[in-house]
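Holo prediction. Input below; ligand is 6-O-phosphono-alpha-D-mannopyranose.
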Amino acid sequence: MRTPPFLAPFGIGLDLEKGAMVRPKRRLVRRASDLRGYYADAAALEEQVRRGNPVHYEVEEIPVPETRGHLMYCISRILPGRVGDEFLMTKGHYHADAGTAEVYLGLRGEGLVLMKARGKFRAERIVRGRMVYVPPFWAHRTVNTGRGPLSFFCVYPAGAGHNYGDIASEGFPRRVVLRRGKPAVVRSS
Ligand code: M6P
Ligand code: ZN
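Structure of the complex:
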């Protein structure tokens, strides 16, 4: 195993009210067109792509080396809205190094962290002041069920990597949809 790169300590600003990183150095922006194949209502997604291809979520980082020993941290912000009746969500992933965990801390808004592993499924609520622990081997996807943006802080081993392929092909066993005016977790058909 390689020795982690030696770095000087540093501090950064987090705007906890906005749920944003102060002066992020890297920003991952995912728009409707990046989410093709993830939502049940593909036609509703294409309609969004045609109508300006809006941003669905963003991840802000001041990155550290992506190697063992370091901890990557970020703030993710999922915009409010739906594709058809399904609430906006992240793609979701396993870690490429599957035996690595992740911690989320809710900063703003409300949502659910969907997790699956070895035939099991769990959904944990995420809101300001609530921490969600994603254990090793659990795929994770976050859904914004609120009327405003959902922001959360994340920390995970910097060498973990993202495995999207398995989720892109298998999906999650449940979806989060609007039913009678409220979010509901339903079986994926
Ligand atoms: C969280 C973390 C990030 C991830 C982001 C968006 O903040 O898990 O590592 O990139 O959510 O999720 P995804 O990569 O699944 O689109
Ligand atoms: Zn992760």
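The helical segments are 42-50, 165-170. That is the main takeaway for now.
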